[in-house]
Every structure is written in C-alpha cells, then in structure tokens.
Amino acid sequence: MVRTRVRPVRPVRITVRMTLTMTKAQATVVRGGLAAMAIAGAAWWTTATMDAQAPARRAQPQAPRRAYAGPRTPDGKPDLNGIWQVMGTAHWDLEAHSPEDGVPGGRSVVEGGEIPYKPEALAKRKENYVNRATADPLSKCYLPGVPRVTYVPLPFEITQTPKYVSIAYEIAHARRIIYTDGSPHVEALEFWMGDSRGRWEGDTLVVDTNNFNDKTWFDKAGNYHSEELHVVERYTPMGRNHIDYQVRIEDPKVFTRPWNMRMIIYRRLEPGLQLLDYDCVSFFWKKMIK
Amino acid sequence: MSKEVKVNSPIARRIVKLAIAASMAAFASHPVLAQAQAPAGGAAAKRPAAATAKPRSAADARANPPWRPVTTYVPPRTPDGQPDIQGMYEPGYFNQPAETAVGGPWKPAAPKGGAQIGPTDFGARQAIDTDPTTPHVTPTNKPMVVDPPDGIVPMQPWVAAKRKEIYAKQEKPEFLDPRVRCLQSGVPRANTPVYYNSYQIMQKPGYVVIMYEWNHMTRIIPLDGRPHLDPKVRLPMGDSRGRWEGNTLVVDVTNFNDDSWVLGHGGIGEGQPAETATSGHGIVHSPELHVVERFTPIDKNIIRYEATIEDPKAFTRPFTIAFDAMVRGREDHQLFEYACHEGNRDGILMATGVDIDPSQK
User: How many helices (H) and strands (E) does chain B have?
Assistant: First the structure.
C-alpha cells in the first residue's frame, strides 16, 4: 500500500473544473504534480455529475486513482469509521419522479434513468406501486434489504477493522457484517440483508452481496427483485466526508441486464452524534396492544 | 445453530429453514422446553488465572466485592491502546438460575404423549459444549444474583404483582415476553446466556461495539466520556457510556424506556407459580432503570459479566448479577441474520388475530 500525502480535495476539484473550461494558455497555469490528479479527477467528476443523463455505456465505473486524501486506518485503508447518511429521494423512488404529498420530487439515481425491467416483470412493479402503502415491506417493519438500507433517510454507523466492515443502521437496528478477510459467501441460504463479502480495490471498498430472499423492495415506489438478486456496491471515498456510492444490480429473473445506481454518502458531522435506534417493531406492538 | 452451513439442494435448504423455524417456535411456545432448570450437582466453574479477593474492610469490600474476579490476565492491546477483547463469543452457561426459588422447586408435568424434557435437551448448547475446539465453562447452580446475598431480586410489591400477572396471563399479547414479540432485550437481559445467541465484539478508536446475534442488536459504546443523552430520549437498549478501568470495560447505561424486562431466559411452564421462578422471567422495570455493567476478560477465553441494577421505582435496593457471560467461540464462527420479527407472522396472528402479511399464507 503506497501512502502518499496528497493535497486536500477541494482545491483539486476547483482546478479540475477550470481545466475543463479554460483555454489552453490558461490551462498551463495548472502545474506538474497537480495536473495528473486533476485529469484523473476531471474524468471522474464529469461522469459523476453527468450520470443522470448519460447513457449506460460504462459497465463498471472505475474509481478515481489517488483521489483520496482523508485519514487512513493503521492497515492503510481509507478510514470509513463514523456516522454517514445519504441525502436525496432514492428512498421514495429510484427513478425520476414529481413531488407529491409527503414525497419530495427527485432525479433518477439510476444510470441511464430507467430500470431495465423485463416486460413481464413490469406488471408486478405497477401492482406494488398501487398497493405501496401496505405492501411496502417497510410498512410491516421488515428489514429493508440491500441497497435500500443505505439510502433510507436515517443515518448508519461504520465500524471498520482489518477483517470486517460492520454497518449498524438506525432503521430497525439492521446490521451488516461485511467480511473483508477473503472468506467466501455462504451457500444457498436466504437472508433479508443478504450475505456480504467485501474486498478493497485500491481505496474502493467493493462489497459483493448475494443469498437474498425475494421479500424486500428497492424503494417505496415498488421497485423490486427476486431471490436471484446479486448486488455489488462500490464505496469510493472522495475525501474525508464523502463517499461515491455506486451499486450494480443484477437479477436475470426481473431485469433484462445488470444496471447501476449512484449517489453520494455524506458524513454526519454533528459533534456527539449517535444512532438513536428507530425500533419499528416496538412501535408496531404499541399499535397492536394499545 | 450450527455455523458450518453448506447446503446445496433446494430441498435440504428448506429443511434447514424449517428446522430453524421449528426450533425457534418450539422454544417460544413450548412451556416445558422453555422452562430451564439447572442441572443437579453442578461443579463450581473452573476459572484459570482468576482468584477471589477477600475483602478486608468495608471500603475494600465495596471496591473489591467477593464475587468480582481478581485476574492476572492481561489482554493484548488494540492499535489505539484499548484492552483487545475482539472476537467471536458463545454464551456462557445459560441454565443457571437468575435467582433463588422461594416457593421450592417446581416440577413441570411431562408433556402429553412425549418423553420428559429435561435440562439436557438444549441441543445447541450441547453441540457447543461437545465441540472440542471451543473453550468450556462448567455450569453451576449458583444464583446469578450475587447481591443481596440471599440471591433474590428485591422487587417492589408492584413488580412482584406484575410478575404474577404475567405468569397468569402469558397468552395475552400485553403479557407476552418482549423477546417473543421480537423486541430488543434491553440491558442487562441482552447478556443473559441463552443458547440461541452468540456475540461478536469489535473495537475501533474510541468505541467498543458489541453485536448480539439474537435479533441483530448492536451496542455502539463510546469511550470518550461524553455525557448521557437528554433524558427526553428513551431507547429500548438504553444509552451506553463506557470506560476502561484497567482491563475491565465499565458501561453506564441509562435512558431506557420500559419495554424490556431486566432479566429472563427461556420461558415459563404452564401453571407455574411466579414465586417458584428462577429464570428472571417477567421482572419488569421503570424508565428510571440505571445499569452499570462490568465486562472483565478473566482469561483469553472467558468474559466475566457483572451488572448492578438500580431502579428505585421497581426495586427496593440496587442488586447485582454476575456470571461468565461470554466464552470465546471459533474464529470462523459467523453471526447469522436473526430476522425475528420478519419470521413472526404466525406468532403475531396467534397473539393478536392480525395477519400482517397475508402473502406468507
């Protein structure tokens, strides 16, 4: 693991934007060491911001090289310990949608804009959407599944050790223990949260999750999957406080091809913050017993 | 449950799921199986490298009570200098009485058409105990309650009355064991050794993280001396603040609601009088509950647990429980998903008449 001291992310990003818009002469202002980083960063930033409109031509977007200047753990990995949260509206609908009562409008987080359902799978989504108030598994306090658990509008806390990245979520005290010790998946079981095995590709944490059941949804709009779901998440730290979160969804039973979603995970910076245990099941029983 | 799962065929897979479901259902609903009795003639637990201190004065007795182990074991250190207690743990002995029975021993009737079910039928724990690669503790008959010396939980009259009511009306949803409703255990109940639980401890700078397999509970315990949450915030697992006293992790827990029971493992026998209970089943508390826990690694394999429970509304005096709660398991042990509520559709239907998920029919 090469550990070089690189400059803070923010000035680099400004340089990046300038090189894109400046003339050749102006661009020479950008000097030596920074230039290489700037180019790598530019390519990544442009794709990141253009994702919503861009056609899905990159099968698996590459992580930026050397872009990470934040703290590292003793074993040299980016230090992801802390409390994080996704902002945005993916929780309500992954695809572009208008605002409605109780639902903020949102742009699509799906690469290419639309989820490539098989024609015969679309009816089920439509039915889910119509019945979403009661059919959404979250309305029964069920575990949210992956990747939905990442972008529900509640925070989560990462605990990182050389062998594991454990994520505790505020919602439903859901938890994932991501093995980064090279151990293989368990075989042929079904879990609400799947079986997660991770590896570091440079500074990107790549998490491969399978062994799902078919009972969770991707959002409140009824986007769904079968038990053949296979999820590959890429957590690429963009700096100390942001993670570029890319997810590849594969489920040959429901979709015509694998597809990607992408969003930013933000570090929650409020001092003394802690998870406050949104224990849906206890609310459920309060309603039941009265 | 076995952690070495290699199931290939869909049929075998279903059998595994059924077996898991059946064992859980049996435990939750079978009054006799759920009634755990300590085996007779249990030998005192062997505790290598641990000795019992003899207090010399009153002040010394408070600082070094007789049940607290004095250990020469020095755990390794994490990179940030904490005593390193990370790893996989199995429950210690689970069938130890939580308190002394005051109504004399109570013998459940044999189940109709079946063999007498005794305390040795806890297969999962037996599997652990007979696995030569895992460390052992010897079950004892010693009460969990070490203070007061009579071993009896000092319940306020309303708590004792409530307990009787719970025993009498255990079929009604409002008297159901919170665990059967898949609510989180609370503290210290989360650390009661039960065969269907196991633990993983992780540490990161400034925190100890205790993960319980049962109901995927996680406690993230900050060590930075920050104050407790605003008293307006009430949480099922409370609000934990930790510190290291030598090699002992001391955790102060407040900000509870009153959804949980203080103690309890297993269930109760049909018709069992509350006075004869030894499992801690049905002991409620108020939101004023305040627990001070001590996790001491007494050797490289065993974590001794002590908790002092204070709640003037519910108990006439503070009381203390102590036992070997966690025994190091195999390093390749894995905490599996324990989707308790998700698998409880039938239980909810039975208790409330409400079918929350007709799609599971």
Answer: 5, 12
> pLDDT band for position B135 (50/70/90)?
low
Q: What is the pLDDT of residues B39-48, one digit of tens each?
A: 333 333 333 3
> How close is the nearest chain A Cα to the Cα of B225, in Å?
11
Task: Indicate the residue of A164, A174, A279 with minimum beta-carbon distance to B236.
Answer: A279
- 116-175 of B, contacting A, C-beta below 8 A: 173-174
Show which of residues 255-284 on chain A sit within 8 Å of chain B, judged by CB atoms. Answer: 272, 274-277, 279, 281-282, 284
Its pTM stands at: 0.80
| B1-9 long-range contacts, CB within 8 A, separation 24+ | B1/B124, B1/B196, B1/B336, B2/B127, B3/B330, B3/B332, B3/B333, B3/B334, B3/B336, B5/A186, B5/A187, B5/A189, B6/A187, B7/A187, B7/A188, B7/A189, B8/A187, B8/A188, B9/A188
List, as own/partner pairs, every contact residues B44-47 make where C-beta atoms lie below 8 angstroms and the sequence separation is at least 24, other chains included: B44/B138, B44/B140, B44/B142, B45/B93, B45/B137, B45/B138, B45/B139, B45/B140, B45/B324, B46/B137, B46/B138, B47/B298, B47/B299, B47/B302, B47/B324
Structure-block tokens of residue A212: 């799902």
Q: Which of A211, A252, A218 lies closest to A137, judged by CA?
A: A218
* B 224-243: CB under 8 A from A: 226, 229, 233, 235-237
At A81-97, the pLDDT tens digits run 999 999 999 999 999 99
Give the pairing of strands A259-267 and A242-250. Answer: antiparallel
Mind listing the pLDDT tens digit for each residue in B66-81?
A: 889 888 999 999 999 9
SS3 string of A39-72?
A: HHHHHHHHHHHHCCCCCCCCCCCCCCCCCCCCCE
Q: Is the ipTM of this complex over 0.85?
A: no
The minimal CB distance from A175 to the residues B79, B174, B216 is found for B216
